[in-house]
C-alpha cells in the first residue's frame, strides 16, 4: 500500500509542471543510450521477447497497445505498469491491456547483467520495437532512442485516451496536444493492422447505429453480416474480433489495415472514419497504395516515444517495474 504523501493539489501542480516541461527533454533521448553502461541491453530484450512471441504471438498487439497507452497517459514513463489501488492500470481503457508479465521477465533478465541501470520505460520501448519487427515477419526494424526515466505518478483519474467514437478532428486534437502530427496519428492507428477488439466496442455499428436500428452505413454490408454472426445480440459473453478483417493478414504487421478501411471494412468507428474524413482520406490512400508503410510506422512509433519523457530530475530507474523505489514519492492512489 503506497503511502500517500502527495495531496491532490500537489499532484496537480506536479502534473502541470511535467506537462509544461514536456519539450525540455526531447534532446535527452538517443539511440544507444546504454552503450557504455549496458552494452547488451537490446540483445537481452530481444532474446526474451522472441521466446515469448514464439509461445504467444498476441503479445505483439498487446505490447504495442501498452506502449501507446503508457505514452498517452502522462508520458512514456512506464507509469501504466505501477500497481496501485487507483493507478492508471485501473482506468477502464486499460482493463484489456496485457503484457505486464513479459515486462517483468525482461526486467529480471536485464537486471541480471546490468543491475538497475535500464528504465522500465525503455524496456517497453525496446520490447515494442522488437515485437513490431517479429509481427512483420522480420520485414521492418527501427532504431529506438532510449534514455527515458520511470515516472512516479500514476493515476487512473488522469488517463486521457481517445475513445473509438470520437471524430477524426477530436482524435487529432489529442495527438496534437502531445506534439504528434496528423500523419503520425494516421500511421499510428495502423497499429490496428494486428490484434483484436471486443464486440462491445462495435455493437452499435452492427445493430443500432446512432439509434437508427440500422447498421452503420459506412460498413460494408457483407462485413456487417459476418460480424453479426461473431457478435450476436444479447449474448452473455463479450466476443473478440480481429481489427484487420483481411483474415490472411490479421496477425501480420502490414499495410492491409489501410486497404481494408478503404474498402469500408474498418472495425472501430474511428478506423473507418480515417478513410472517410476529408482531413485524413488522402493520407490513408497514399499509405494504402504506397510501399513504405512499415518504415513510416517505425518513424511514427519513434515520435510517440518522445511524449512526456521523464529525466533524472522527475523520474527514477525502478527496481521493480510494478512499484516506485520509494513509496513516499509515489502517487498511485
Ligand atoms: C487513436 C485512437 C485509438 C482508439 C480510439 C483505439 C481504440 C482501441 C480499442 C477500442 C481497442 C480494442 C480493445 C479491446 O477490445 O480490448 C484497441 C485495440 C488495439 N489498439 Fe487501439 N486505439 C487507438 C489508437 C491506437 C494506437 C495509436 C495504437 C498503436 C500505435 C493502437 C494499438 C492497438 C492494438 C495493437 C490493439 C489490439 C490489442 C490486442 O489485441 O491486445 N491503438 N484500440
Ligand atoms: C489480404 O491480404 C493478403 C496479404 O497481405 C493480400 O495478398 C490480399 O490481396 C488481401 N486480400 C484482400 C481482399 O485485400
Ligand atoms: C492486465 C491488468 O493488470 N489488468 C487489470 C486492470 O484493472 C483491473 C481492476 O480494475 C484488474 O482486475 C486487471 O487485472
Automatic annotation (TrEMBL):
GO terms for cellular component: extracellular region; vacuole. The keyword Iron applies. Gene3D superfamilies: 1.10.520.10, Peroxidase, domain 2 (1.10.420.10). Its main location: secreted. PROSITE patterns: PEROXIDASE_1 (PS00435), PEROXIDASE_2 (PS00436), PEROXIDASE_4 (PS50873). Heme b binds at residue 192. The active site is at 69 (proton acceptor). It is found in: Secreted; Vacuole. It comes from the Eukaryota. Ca(2+) 2 binds at residues 193, 244, 254. It catalyses: 2 a phenolic donor + H2O2 = 2 a phenolic radical donor + 2 H2O. Disulfide bonds join 38-114, 71-76, 120-321, 199-231. The record marks 65 as: Transition state stabilizer. Ca(2+) 1 binds at residues 70, 75, 77, 79, 88. CDD domains: secretory_peroxidase. Keywords: Calcium, Disulfide bond, Glycoprotein, Heme, Hydrogen peroxide, Iron, Metal-binding, Oxidoreductase, Peroxidase, Secreted, Signal. Its cofactor is Ca(2+); heme b. One of its GO terms (biological process) is hydrogen peroxide catabolic process. Removal of H(2)O(2), oxidation of toxic reductants, biosynthesis and degradation of lignin, suberization, auxin catabolism, response to environmental stresses such as wounding, pathogen attack and oxidative stress. These functions might be dependent on each isozyme/isoform in each plant tissue. This is Peroxidase. It comes from Capsella rubella.
